[in-house]
Amino acid sequence: MQFKRPRTLSTRLDVAPMADVVFLLLIFFMLSTSFVVQPGIQIRLPKAVTSEIQLKKDLILTITAENILFLNEELITLDELGEALQAAFAQRKDRILIIKADQEVKHGMVVQAMDIAKMNGADRLVIATEPKLL
């Protein structure tokens, strides 16, 4: 007994390989974008319910958990802080200093930096915090 095959051409497009490629591309882009490293000084600010967002470009003193000081992202020592603040305040009409201290920094270090800032011309001192979610 002989069987005959039909002589029609199949014009169906198989979608499964195309879906596999799309999912692989999606996974690739999701993984590659999650490894972007943010440059800058790494600190963990304390959280507060009453924190406000500052929009102006102010003078910022950053104190890391290792007690390393940065004045507007420039490395500075505690001994050089007074002179640097005097020079910075001489060029500004507002004498506001924002202090971003890591939550692990000892209280005495922050008070010492605030004291130096007040002695060298700071009118207002602001301690930066992150918003606390209720």
Largest beta sheet: what is the strand line-up?
4-3-2-5-6
Q: On the 0-100 scale, what is the average pLDDT?
A: 81
What coarse outline follows from CA principal-axis ratios? Answer: rod-shaped
Ends apart, CA distance between termini: 81 Å
Order of helices and strands: HEEEEHEHEE
Task: Quote the CATH topology of one domain.
Answer: Nucleotidyltransferase, domain 5
Poorly predicted parts: none
Question: How many beta-strand elements?
Answer: 7
Helix count equals: 3
Architecture of one domain, according to CATH? 2-Layer Sandwich
* Proportion of strand residues: 15-25%
The biggest sheet amounts to:
5 strands, mixed
Helix content: 25-40%
Give the class-level CATH name of one domain: Alpha Beta
Q: In terms of structural class, how would the helical and strand content be classed?
A: alpha/beta
| Overall radius of gyration | 29 Å
Structural summary, described in words:
This protein has a domain at 47-131: Nucleotidyltransferase, domain 5 (2-Layer Sandwich), CATH 3.30.420. 33% of the residues lie in helices and 19% in strands. It is built from three helices and seven strands, in the order αββββαβαββ. The strands form two sheets. The chain has a five-stranded mixed beta sheet, with helices on one face. A hairpin with a 2-residue loop joins β3 and β4. α2 (78-90) crosses α3 (107-119). The model has no long low-confidence stretch (mean pLDDT 81).
